[in-house]
Amino acid sequence: MQELLVICDLEATCWEDGQTPAIDDMEVIEIGCVLCNIGGDAVDEFSTFVRPTKNPSLSPFCRQLTNISQKDVDLAPLFEDAMQLLDEWCASRNAFWSSWGNFDRKLLMNQEQRTQSSSLFTKLAHVNLKKAWRRTNKIRSHTGLQNALNFHGICFEGTPHRAIFDAKNTARLLPFIQKSEFALQLGLI
Asked: Which of 52, 102, 106, 136 has the largest CB neighbor count within 10 A?
């Protein structure tokens, strides 16, 4: 089994409850990734803002939730260019990618299809870390990242709802996931 994984977290356009559209209409506004070993030790990281085009103006709710400014995204690369930067960062790494749940994977795949981007990153094998963590720790209920950290007495470090900090904090949960869960999701057992 590969010993390195990329934990990827995304932030997306969002609005007040009840106003946020389906995932088909959301756009990535930040990509944060941590390259680490399966024990959670960080080796490298990648972060970029992404300029939305469908809804180029961030809602006040989105700016407040994520602490991402309009200027941050106005000066950022478009999705296709951001994915190319991610591909270049991942190019020589023998790693699979993972996320806390499937939302980020679905959002990436959906936006890639809409923009006809052909990222190599999304073709890598994916592991749902939330599923692996829940199975390891025998947790049946819906568990967000903050609740999983709390379960182990770990305080969140950094700014919540910022992709790079969410990815780093997710890496801190890797020691609490049985390695067989990675192999199971990668189809190795």
From this structure: 52
